[in-house]
Amino acid sequence: MAATAYSAAALLGGARLAAVPPSVLLPRRSKMSPLRLQEAPRLSLLRVKASSDDSSAASGDDIIADLQAKWDAVENKGTVLTYAGGAVVALWLTSVIVGAVNSVPLLPKIMELVGLGYTGWFVYRYLLFKESRKELADDIDSLKKKIAGSD
Fold it and tell me: Which of 62, 63, 83 is nearest to 74 (CA)?
């Protein structure tokens, strides 16, 4: 009976009830049997055919050998390991910061509103009109050239 009182208090926002029968708190089970897989209607739009051609799939040994060859080609392994460690620490720190921000009561909702506002502005500024889409495509192309070093 104590478990029933606690569950009633939890369901009703902390209000204590003198005696509540379990049938009020628990949903009733149906007398129908569950739908079996064989009885379910089969609607398949996708057909898959097995093939013995294994040319497109790479085996695990090939992938490991390729990674080993690339690692052996790296000249400054210490720098690569430092950057990898820094990336892991940055990812962990970002996770901690997002968790802390998410625990502040109103801040996640405010950040959602800011994100929605920025998304609306971006759509209006760059995606709504043909000229602005062309401008965005040009900006992306110039950024690609700048990153690739061909500019």
Answer: 83
- Torsions phi, psi for 56 (to 5 deg): -85, -20
Our CA angle for 73, 76, 78, nearest 5°, is: 125
3-state secondary structure of 138: helix
The pTM of this model reads 0.40
Extents of the domains making up the chain: 62-104, 105-150
Residue 118 CA neighbour count, 13 Å, CB half = 6
The top-scoring range by mean pLDDT among 59-63, 64-68, 115-119, 147-151 is 115-119
> 134 vs 130, 141, 143, CA distance in Å?
6, 11, 14
Instruction: Write the CA distances from 150 to 92, 98, 140, 143, integer angstroms.
Output: 35, 37, 14, 10
